Amino acid sequence: MKELENEVELKRKKKQTLNNNAMNFRLNLVSLYESPIGSITFDKVEKLKNELIQKGHGRRYINLSLATLSLILKHAIRKGHIENLPLIEPLKVRREDIKERQFLSMQEINKFLSELPEETKGGLRIRDFAKMHFLTGMRVGEMCAMRFDWVQGDKIIIQATQILTGREENAPKTGIGSIPLTNEMREIIERQPKRNAYVFSSKKNKSILRSAITILYSRHGRRILGQPIQTHTLRRSLGRALLDNQEPIYTVSRLLRHSSITMTQKAYASLSDETERK
């Protein structure tokens, strides 16, 4: 299949999706990427979809990979490489396919953060990244896009976010927001190497992609806790820790910059049910 990747002719938007999602193919759909185009079957794709779910990847992330795969297969049909499309569309991941929202206890959080390596081979200080991710409750895209100039006085002013494709937009999901800057957060920021404008970057002077964090959290989560850690888990777990500490849900909603209190209540509904059962 890899020999078709560069010759796929698509509309601009679809081509951009294909190019930006190339890493998903090579890292997550390895067996398909290396397979002869004619050997790809519905069963093989379904098996890989389930493997991605087990690894802890999000629904949009998996569906984007499947959609890009579908584009390549359709192109292969037009070129005469294969006769029939192995029905990728029915394999889209639905919300109910993903396990319940993942939360970690403070004991699990401390274990995960303490046993992460300080730095990856590529130069990302992953332990500091994960600590900052939990302390701030930022979305992973915001973490990847975080710049030194976001620190203004005693606040972190969120001015941009990195979305699934790795491109930047001028506004994050809920608009420009701010987070109180603690001494621990400031220390983490100040000890990062200033390779460029980004707080967290690689030795190659590049910002960090969300897909790289997805892989690192999943891999080290399995090693340390016996389960893959999703990219949204640290953010969710901060909310849980605050609620367990009797913080008002309105405070949690404001800190996590949810669009409404209803969204916060829905996100932590399972915790309320668990409390009632006890």
Topology (SSEs and partners):
Elements: H1 12-20, H2 22-28, H3 30-33, H4 42-55, H5 59-78, H6 106-115, H7 126-136, H8 140-145, E1 151-152, E2 155-158, E3 161-162, E4 168-169, E5 177-180, H9 183-190, H10 210-225, H11 233-244, H12 249-255, H13 261-267, H14 269-277
Antiparallel strand pairs: 1-2, 2-5, 3-4
List the main descriptive attributes of the protein structure presented here.
2 domains; 278 residues; mainly alpha; hpI Integrase, Chain A; three-stranded antiparallel beta sheet; globular; 50% helix
Q: CATH superfamily of the largest domain, please? A: Intergrase catalytic core
Q: What do we call the CATH topology of the largest domain?
A: hpI Integrase, Chain A
Spatial order of the strands forming the largest sheet: 1-2-5
Residue share in helices?
40-55%
What does the average pLDDT come to? 75
Task: Work out the number of β strands.
Answer: 5
List segments where confidence is low: pLDDT < 50 over at least 5 consecutive residues. Answer: 5-23, 161-172, 273-278
Q: How widely separated are the two ends?
A: 53 Å
Q: SSE string, helix = H, strand = E? A: HHHHHHHHEEEEEHHHHHH
The structural class is: mainly alpha
Specify the biggest β-sheet: 3 strands, antiparallel
Number of domains: 2
Overall geometric form? globular
Return the CATH class of the largest domain: Mainly Alpha
Rg from alpha-carbon coordinates: 20 Å
Any idea what the CATH architecture of the largest domain is? Orthogonal Bundle
